[in-house]
Amino acid sequence: MSYDEKSDISLRLPARTVEALDRIAQVLDRDRSWVMWKALDQYLANEGAEILRDAHGLDELDRGESVALDDALEKARMIVDASAVRHPRVG
């Protein structure tokens, strides 16, 4: 499905949520569907994307595609130590 294609869905919401959507739509001179689309789009870009990243990470762990904690900590120590040599603190 392309980005421009649309599908109808049915959604049951609390009356107060629908009223808020209608108030926002009226203020913006848009229809309720547009307001709902913007809200869902923002959710998918933020929380939804985080959920998908977490799921991807869990899938990698399930496949054994991970780094040992000790190896990761050693790499972090090396980076910090190298930075300390290049940028000594004065003070």
TrEMBL record:
Sequence ranges assigned to domain Ribbon-helix-helix protein CopG in this UniProt record: 9-47
Any Pfam family the entry gives: RHH_1
Taxonomy, superkingdom: Bacteria
Gene Ontology biological-process entries: regulation of DNA-templated transcription
Name of the featured protein: Ribbon-helix-helix protein, CopG family
Species, as recorded: Rhizobium leguminosarum
